[in-house]
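Encode chain A's predicted structure.
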Amino acid sequence: MKIEKLTENKIRIIMNIQDIEKNTNDIHTFFDNIMNSQNLFLDILQKAEKEVDFHTEGCKLLIEAFSTLEDVVAFTITKYSSTESNSINTGDVLNNSSKRKLIVKRKTNTPSLKNAVYELDNFDYFCDFCNSISKIENLNIDKLAKKIVLYNYQNKFFLIFKDINFKDKYINKIFNILSEFAKFQNFSTNFEYKLTEHATIYIKNNAISKGIQYLV
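Encoded structure for chain A:
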């Protein structure tokens, strides 16, 4: 098991099948049988506190889990203060109370439409994303969509996908990993027009493959 600190409020835990089965006995019921996995999450929080100084006392937690590569499962844990969590769907947030009862939401992030836009808080997140997917063997990211453009607008970055290829065998992996670093936004022609008119084009096309080439 590997614990990485992404930000002050977010960590990522990478586990292989053996890590999970050692704690739950049955990987197939890991997400469904919360009682069997509860102690595992509590152990993870204790290790995160010791290894990466990630303290969760008095915070609410959002735990998202998804498969990234073959036989690998990643967990993203985000902590929120009471004020911040007021604007979040409480069904998806865990109260880190004395009872320490955890609820896990299975995460799916593959777009259902041909076009998609993802918002990144800063350019470093884009670099981290490129670095993460650069480790996938035999990946041809340019086949993922006909056009992939990176914009800079109002101190944020927007990654636009046009004509997504849903037949690409890596599509679920790519968008699941991207969801660790970016927020999915509803695509609209009006928003695309706004970016075209007012945003700065950071990488005109093949943004991800160029990011891997020059930034990783």
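Confidence is low (pLDDT under 50) at residues 85-106.
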